[in-house]
User: Which sequence fits this backbone?
C-alpha cells in the first residue's frame, strides 16, 4: 500500500530546439523506484550516507502538461540484515533539460524544477510513531512539471484502457518464443511502435532507432541468453497508466526479456511494455 504525497509545480526556462528531458535522481539511506506518468523509469538503492545517482532520459514518457514523477521509497538493509533507519534517508531530484546529443550525467544540465522528499518522509515517520502505527511501505511522493515540446498524451492519458489478460499472456509467449529462437529481426518487428515513439521523442530518424535496436538485440541481448523457461500462466502482468499500457514480466518479477544477474549483480534486460496497436498488441516502450 502506498501513502499519498505532495504535489509541486515546475518553473520554466526558455525553449530550445527539441530538448531532451532527464530525471536526475540522488538518494541515500533508502531504495527508490521512480516512475514518470505511471511508467517505470528506474531504481536506485544506497545503504549508507553516500548518495547513489541516476539521470535517465524520459522523453518517451512525457505528456506535455502536468507530467507526474512518482518516487516510491522502500527500506534498505545493512550487511547484518537489519533495515536502515529511513529517518536518515536523502531523496533529491530534478528535471533537467538538455540539448539534443548533449550527454547528461547526474548534476548536469539545466534544471527546470527540483524536489526533495526527505523532510516529508521524516514527518510521516514521526506521525506514525506518535500514532503508534507502523509506517506503511512503500511511501509514495509525487511532483508535477510541464514541458512544451514532447507529448504522448494521446497514448498515455487519452487512449482506451485494455483489460484482456488472456491476450496479454498469449502475447508474452510470442515474445518468449522469438527470444528463444534468437530472432532479432522478428523481435524488433514486434517493437515497431516503440521505434516510432522513440523517433518522435528524440527527433530522430526511425531507421536509425530501428537499426540500433536490431543491432543491440542481435549482438548483445540475445547472445547473452535471456531466460525463456517459463509458461504462459506464469507471466506477471502489471497495468500502467490506468490499463493503457501493460508491463509483462517473468514469474520472478524480472523483465520478460532478461538474463539472471551474474555474480556481480549485472544483467541484460529489456522491459516489455505493450498496448494495442493496429488491431493487435505491440511493444510500445
Assistant:
Amino acid at each position: 500500500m502506498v501513502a499519498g504525497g505532495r504535489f509541486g509545480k515546475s518553473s520554466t526556462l526558455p525553449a530550445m530546439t527539441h530538448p531532451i528531458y532527464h530525471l536526475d535522481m540522488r538518494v541515500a539511506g533508502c531504495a527508490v523506484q521512480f516512475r514518470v506518468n505511471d511508467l517505470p523509469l528506474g531504481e536506485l538503492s544506497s545503504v549508507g550516507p553516500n548518495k547513489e545517482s541516476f539521470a535517465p532520459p524520459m522523453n518517451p514518457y512525457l505528456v506535455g502538461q502536468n507530467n507526474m514523477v512518482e518516487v516510491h521509497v522502500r527500506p534498505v538493509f545493512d550487511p547484518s540484515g537489519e533495515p536502515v533507519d529511513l529517518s536518515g534517508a536523502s531523496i533529491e531530484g530534478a528535471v533537467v533539460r538538455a540539448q539534443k546529443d548533449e550527454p547528461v550525467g547526474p548534476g548536469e544540465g539545466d534544471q527546470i524544477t527540483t524536489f526533495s522528499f526527505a523532510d516529508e518522509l521524516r514527518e510521516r515517520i514521526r506521525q506514525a510513531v506518535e500514532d503508534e502505527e507502523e509506517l506503511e511501505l512503500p511511501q509514495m511522493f509525487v511532483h508535477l512539471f510541464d514541458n512544451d515540446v514532447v507529448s504522448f498524451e494521446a497514448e498515455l492519458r487519452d487512449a482506451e484502457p485494455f483489460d484482456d489478460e488472456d491476450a496479454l499472456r498469449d502475447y508474452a509467449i510470442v515474445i518468449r518464443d522469438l527470444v528463444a529462437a534468437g530472432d532479432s529481426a522478428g523481435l524488433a518487428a514486434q517493437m515497431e511502435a516503440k521505434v516510432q515513439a522513440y523517433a518522435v521523442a528524440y527527433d530522430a530518424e526511425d531507421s536509425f532507432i530501428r537499426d540500433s535496436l536490431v543491432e543491440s538485440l542481435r549482438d548483445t541481448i540475445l547472445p547473452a541468453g535471456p531466460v525463456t523457461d517459463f509458461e504462459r500462466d506464469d507471466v506477471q502482468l502489471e497495468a500502467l497508466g490506468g490499463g493503457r499500457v501493460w508491463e509483462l514480466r517473468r514469474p520472478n518479477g524480472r523483465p520478460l526479456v532478461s538474463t539472471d544477474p551474474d555474480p556481480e549483480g549485472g544483467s541484460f534486460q529489456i522491459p516489455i511494455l505493450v498496448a494495442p496497436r493496429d488491431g493487435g498488441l505491440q511493444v510500445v516502450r
In short: Confidence is low (pLDDT under 50) at residues 1-15. The first strand starts at residue 20 and ends at 28. Residues 63 and 153 are 5 Å apart (CA to CA). The radius of gyration is 20 Å.
